[in-house]
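W.,

You were right to be curious about this one. When I first looked at the sequence I had no strong expectations either way, so I just let the prediction run and decided to look at it fresh. Below is the sequence, 135 residues in total, followed by the output.
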Amino acid sequence: MVFAGSVSVNEGLAALVCASLGTLWWWGVGRRGGVRFRFDRGTLRPIWRALRGLPRETVQVGGKLVRALRGGGASGGTTRERSASDFAWATPDGATAPAARAVGLLAASLAPDSYVLTLDRDHGTVVTHGLEEAR
Protein backbone atom coordinates (compact mmCIF):
# COMPACT_ATOMS: atom_id res chain seq x y z
CA MET A 1 0.00 0.00 0.00
CA VAL A 2 2.84 2.38 0.79
CA PHE A 3 4.66 1.73 -2.48
CA ALA A 4 1.53 2.16 -4.61
CA GLY A 5 1.38 5.86 -3.77
CA SER A 6 -2.17 5.85 -2.49
CA VAL A 7 -4.11 4.30 0.35
CA SER A 8 -7.75 3.36 0.05
CA VAL A 9 -10.31 1.84 2.38
CA ASN A 10 -10.71 -1.17 0.07
CA GLU A 11 -6.99 -1.95 0.24
CA GLY A 12 -7.01 -1.62 4.00
CA LEU A 13 -9.98 -3.95 4.36
CA ALA A 14 -8.41 -6.46 1.95
CA ALA A 15 -5.21 -6.44 4.01
CA LEU A 16 -7.19 -6.94 7.22
CA VAL A 17 -9.18 -9.84 5.73
CA CYS A 18 -6.05 -11.54 4.33
CA ALA A 19 -4.20 -11.18 7.64
CA SER A 20 -7.19 -12.56 9.52
CA LEU A 21 -7.51 -15.54 7.18
CA GLY A 22 -3.80 -16.27 7.47
CA THR A 23 -4.02 -16.15 11.27
CA LEU A 24 -7.06 -18.41 11.32
CA TRP A 25 -5.31 -20.86 8.98
CA TRP A 26 -2.28 -20.94 11.27
CA TRP A 27 -4.43 -21.51 14.37
CA GLY A 28 -6.53 -24.19 12.69
CA VAL A 29 -4.03 -26.05 10.54
CA GLY A 30 -0.50 -24.84 11.15
CA ARG A 31 -0.38 -25.70 14.84
CA ARG A 32 -1.45 -29.31 14.28
CA GLY A 33 1.80 -30.34 12.61
CA GLY A 34 4.45 -32.15 14.62
CA VAL A 35 7.35 -29.79 13.79
CA ARG A 36 7.94 -26.86 16.09
CA PHE A 37 10.57 -24.28 15.24
CA ARG A 38 12.60 -22.83 18.10
CA PHE A 39 15.21 -20.29 17.18
CA ASP A 40 18.18 -19.06 19.10
CA ARG A 41 20.98 -16.72 18.09
CA GLY A 42 23.21 -19.52 16.78
CA THR A 43 20.45 -20.94 14.61
CA LEU A 44 20.38 -17.82 12.41
CA ARG A 45 24.16 -17.57 11.87
CA PRO A 46 24.18 -19.36 8.48
CA ILE A 47 21.71 -16.81 7.06
CA TRP A 48 23.91 -13.85 8.05
CA ARG A 49 26.98 -15.54 6.52
CA ALA A 50 25.08 -16.24 3.30
CA LEU A 51 23.77 -12.67 3.09
CA ARG A 52 27.26 -11.20 3.63
CA GLY A 53 28.66 -13.29 0.76
CA LEU A 54 25.72 -12.71 -1.57
CA PRO A 55 26.95 -9.52 -3.31
CA ARG A 56 30.41 -10.98 -4.05
CA GLU A 57 28.97 -14.28 -5.31
CA THR A 58 26.39 -12.46 -7.43
CA VAL A 59 29.15 -10.48 -9.17
CA GLN A 60 31.15 -13.69 -9.75
CA VAL A 61 28.16 -15.51 -11.23
CA GLY A 62 27.30 -12.46 -13.35
CA GLY A 63 30.83 -12.53 -14.78
CA LYS A 64 30.55 -16.25 -15.56
CA LEU A 65 27.22 -15.72 -17.29
CA VAL A 66 28.60 -12.85 -19.39
CA ARG A 67 31.55 -15.04 -20.42
CA ALA A 68 29.12 -17.83 -21.33
CA LEU A 69 27.07 -15.43 -23.46
CA ARG A 70 30.23 -14.40 -25.31
CA GLY A 71 30.97 -18.03 -26.14
CA GLY A 72 33.11 -19.00 -23.16
CA GLY A 73 31.84 -22.58 -23.27
CA ALA A 74 29.96 -22.68 -19.97
CA SER A 75 28.25 -25.89 -18.93
CA GLY A 76 24.78 -26.27 -17.46
CA GLY A 77 26.23 -27.06 -14.06
CA THR A 78 26.59 -30.26 -12.08
CA THR A 79 24.59 -32.22 -9.56
CA ARG A 80 26.49 -33.61 -6.58
CA GLU A 81 25.44 -36.06 -3.90
CA ARG A 82 27.35 -35.67 -0.65
CA SER A 83 27.13 -37.03 2.84
CA ALA A 84 24.92 -35.04 5.20
CA SER A 85 27.76 -35.11 7.73
CA ASP A 86 29.64 -32.68 5.43
CA PHE A 87 27.05 -30.01 6.30
CA ALA A 88 26.68 -28.91 9.91
CA TRP A 89 23.13 -27.68 9.24
CA ALA A 90 21.99 -31.09 7.94
CA THR A 91 22.60 -33.01 11.17
CA PRO A 92 21.83 -30.70 14.13
CA ASP A 93 20.84 -31.88 17.60
CA GLY A 94 18.69 -30.45 20.36
CA ALA A 95 15.50 -28.47 20.63
CA THR A 96 16.45 -26.11 17.80
CA ALA A 97 17.29 -28.92 15.32
CA PRO A 98 14.26 -28.42 13.00
CA ALA A 99 14.86 -24.66 12.84
CA ALA A 100 18.61 -25.13 12.32
CA ARG A 101 17.96 -27.54 9.44
CA ALA A 102 15.46 -25.16 7.81
CA VAL A 103 17.72 -22.11 8.17
CA GLY A 104 20.77 -24.05 6.95
CA LEU A 105 18.89 -25.33 3.93
CA LEU A 106 17.73 -21.80 3.09
CA ALA A 107 21.25 -20.39 3.53
CA ALA A 108 22.78 -23.13 1.37
CA SER A 109 20.25 -22.42 -1.39
CA LEU A 110 20.62 -18.64 -1.16
CA ALA A 111 23.90 -18.54 -3.08
CA PRO A 112 23.30 -17.52 -6.70
CA ASP A 113 25.43 -20.34 -8.11
CA SER A 114 24.12 -23.33 -6.17
CA TYR A 115 21.09 -24.69 -4.36
CA VAL A 116 20.01 -27.78 -2.46
CA LEU A 117 17.85 -30.22 -4.40
CA THR A 118 17.15 -32.75 -1.64
CA LEU A 119 18.06 -33.52 1.95
CA ASP A 120 17.53 -37.23 2.54
CA ARG A 121 17.89 -37.73 6.29
CA ASP A 122 17.04 -41.43 6.05
CA HIS A 123 20.04 -42.11 3.80
CA GLY A 124 22.20 -39.27 5.14
CA THR A 125 22.70 -37.52 1.81
CA VAL A 126 22.40 -33.98 0.46
CA VAL A 127 22.04 -33.43 -3.30
CA THR A 128 23.06 -30.01 -4.60
CA HIS A 129 23.18 -28.36 -8.00
CA GLY A 130 25.91 -25.87 -8.81
CA LEU A 131 27.12 -23.89 -11.78
CA GLU A 132 30.65 -25.13 -11.28
CA GLU A 133 32.01 -28.44 -10.04
CA ALA A 134 33.95 -27.07 -7.05
CA ARG A 135 30.83 -25.90 -5.18
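Here's what jumped out at me. The first helix runs from residue 9 to 28. And, maybe more interesting for your project: The two ends are 41 Å apart (CA to CA).

Coffee later to discuss?

I.
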